[in-house]
User: Which sequence fits this backbone?
């Protein structure tokens, strides 16, 4: 008999956001929570996402809304209007969990509960073994995940889908079946239809065996995490990897460090990653290129900048811009270039110009192919591209870096990096002072 109180300790006044698709699993979980709502004085917020890919989706959304009204539950729903070019399931999952997390914060909930069950765990572990992962990935998913401020809880991990469907029948719980769950084009569906039945024929409680396997790996992983953390202290500086020190570590620890850094962006969804991604990152780190990057799933970027390596969330491309400089130019990178009356600063953040030697108005823009600058103190010109390389400016920053030119296109200043022959000393004649801040 299913009793979620046996597997999770509830507390008086718990605030729970539950992800509810209206399928048999999530409706069973919702019914179970309703049965103990008064006992623990629970606040239950139902979160429903209409994926907008089946005509039944709107009927299901209306059903859960009416269900919540009848049971005095808060219901929050959203509809996914558009999908990008990413993998459908990955993109839908990201949208769902962002929605759920926003609701957790909105209602100051301490738990986000989902209806993942034992069959889901078996499928996930098998998929990760086939795709390739690390020890943390091979353990599948945890029943409780600390998300720094709240917990993701999967109280049904001890039960099978068949047991949950039996619960629904015994308790007259209405639910909907997603027809897409039977389509072979989705990887998880193939494991569900063809691999899982075979395993259950061999052992009807195979999900519990996989749960034990997962917990065993979890204990081993705790030991490995300690070694990885010591290595992190040796190789990290200002949230970046020092490549020369990283390469001194054991190859296994190197991979664990990378998985750890990636987990910040993928959290409990390492299924998006495989050995192929880790190998690509290691190739990048070991390459002779001083400045390079690779794109990872969900707009994450792994980039190398000389002896530094980091993993970052892709910043929306600022794109080309061109701003006429009057008194101040507010830049897309949230910095500014402004005219000031005086300063003792003589760094590359300051530029002094004589208006008789440049063609006004001045323009602040992004770099262009072939841009050259007459460097102050040197004969001839130098490519702006080469200056960025010399100054070790990360590849992803170069296309958005401000360049100050006059109306004839002469580069008069690369703010924060290099001054041109047009720049004046304090002892020379000038009537324009620019500051980059």
Assistant:
């Amino acid at each position: 008999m299913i009793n979620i109180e046996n597997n999770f300790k509830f507390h008086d006044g718990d605030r729970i956001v539950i992800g509810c698709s209206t399928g048999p699993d999530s409706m069973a979980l919702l019914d179970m929570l309703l049965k103990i709502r008064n006992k623990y004085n629970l606040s239950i917020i139902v979160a429903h996402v209409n994926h907008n890919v089946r005509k039944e989706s709107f009927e299901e959304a209306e059903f859960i809304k009416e269900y919540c009204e009848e049971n005095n539950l808060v219901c929050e729903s959203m509809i996914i209007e558009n999908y990008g070019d990413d993998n459908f399931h990955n993109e839908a999952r990201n949208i769902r969990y962002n929605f759920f997390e926003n609701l957790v914060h909105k209602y100051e909930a301490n738990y986000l509960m989902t209806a993942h069950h034992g069959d889901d765990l078996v499928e996930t572990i098998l998929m990760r073994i086939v795709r390739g992962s690390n020890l943390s990935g091979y353990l599948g998913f945890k029943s409780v995940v600390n998300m720094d401020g709240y917990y993701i809880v999967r109280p049904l991990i001890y039960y099978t889908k068949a047991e949950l469907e039996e619960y629904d029948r015994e308790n007259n719980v209405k639910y909907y079946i997603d027809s897409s769950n039977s389509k072979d084009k989705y990887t998880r569906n193939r494991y569900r239809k063809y691999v899982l039945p075979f395993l259950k024929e061999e052992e009807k409680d195979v999900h519990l065996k996989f749960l034990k396997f997962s917990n065993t790996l979890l204990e081993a992983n705790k030991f490995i995490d300690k070694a990885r953390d010591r290595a992190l202290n040796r190789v990290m500086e200002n949230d970046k990897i020092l490549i020369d020190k990283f390469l001194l570590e054991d190859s296994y620890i190197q991979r664990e460090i990378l998985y750890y850094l990636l987990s910040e962006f993928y959290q409990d969804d390492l299924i998006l990653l495989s050995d192929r991604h880790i190998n690509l990152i290691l190739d990048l780190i070991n390459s002779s290129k001083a400045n390079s990057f690779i794109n990872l799933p969900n707009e994450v970027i792994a980039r190398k900048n000389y002896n530094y390596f980091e993993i970052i969330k892709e910043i929306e491309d600022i794109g080309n811009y061109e701003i006429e400089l009057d008194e101040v130019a507010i830049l897309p990178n949230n910095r500014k270039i402004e005219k000031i009356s005086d300063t003792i600063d003589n760094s590359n953040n300051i530029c002094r110009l004589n208006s008789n030697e440049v063609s006004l108005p001045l323009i602040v823009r992004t770099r262009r192919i072939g841009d050259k600058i007459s460097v102050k103190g040197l004969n001839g010109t130098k490519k702006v591209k080469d200056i960025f390389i010399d100054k070790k400016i990360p590849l992803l920053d170069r296309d958005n870096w401000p360049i100050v030119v006059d109306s004839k296109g002469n580069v008069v200043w690369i703010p924060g990096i290099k001054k041109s022959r047009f720049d004046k000393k304090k002892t020379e004649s000038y009537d324009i002072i620019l500051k980059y801040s």
